[in-house]
Amino acid sequence: MAINPQAPSAVVMIRPHNFSPNPETLPDNSYQSRDVSQDQALLATQAYEQVSQAQQQLQAAGINVHVFEDTGTDTPDSVFPNNWFSTHLGGHVAIYPMYAKNRRKERRTDIIDMLKAQYRVQDVIDYSGLEYDNIYLEGTGAMVLDHIERVAYAVRSKRTDSLALERFCTQFNFEPMVFDAEDEAGVPIYHTNVLMCIGSDFVMAGFNMIKDVARRQQIISRFEDSGRTIIDLTDKQIRHFCGNALELQSKTGRYLALSQCAYQALTHEQIALLNQSVTLLPLNVSAIEMAGGSVRCMLAGIHLSKR
């Protein structure tokens, strides 16, 4: 099976044993739960079970899932590995500088070693040293990559430094497309992958969150020029994590992994449009969504050739 540049056929997932919403990320993540009355032990158990269930559903769809356990207590957001590393056709891996100090502990050599052992890895480019200069670029949370057209879409935020973005784009052959976006309350969006999902044949995004009308139209035009169907998401749908989905490829076709919450927030018309190119694969990750991220954040796609 030829590799689909946009939709990976394998992913890395982290199964947390002590999950909890991260207090260090709360100040700038308006999608994170502020309910402090939750039973933390129950939440951790639910998150563990939901990752296990999602793994089974993905594997049943023909997606290769590499699961790593996180038994530690000092990495509350480890369930979101897409922020600290990404992989790219041609055998390239990037490691990223993280804004929250406790998230820097999520980087694991055993995951990189697995990639080298099972896939063809030519080089690993490590940007994490930029943290010492307070420069951050949180992987495919900060950037939503159009692997076909080679464009890196990125919302400006303290987690997405334009200098680091330029460096990544130069080394990985992407064109940076930077823009400002904010939620319905005027709060800046913390990660691009909250509001945008790029598939092979479609893009769904909260375009109205891009307040600069000219920039918004420019971005929509780029997607239209690439032949993609445009699916516009409302602020409410973004809050239900409809933009935080990932297209995946298996031998039986393409799937869109998204949360149950997101699936229920889509309209019949949007689902019909998506069904033209993908099979929707809703995953219940309600406990994990308390931390302000959803299915896309939980899946680090592997765009590498198998050994």
UniProtKB/TrEMBL annotation:
Top-level taxonomic group: Bacteria
Pfam families linked to this entry: DDAH_eukar
InterPro entries: Amdntrnsf_FN0238 (IPR014541)
Full protein name: Amidinotransferase
Organism of derivation: Shewanella inventionis
Lineage per the UniProt record: Bacteria, Pseudomonadati, Pseudomonadota, Gammaproteobacteria, Alteromonadales
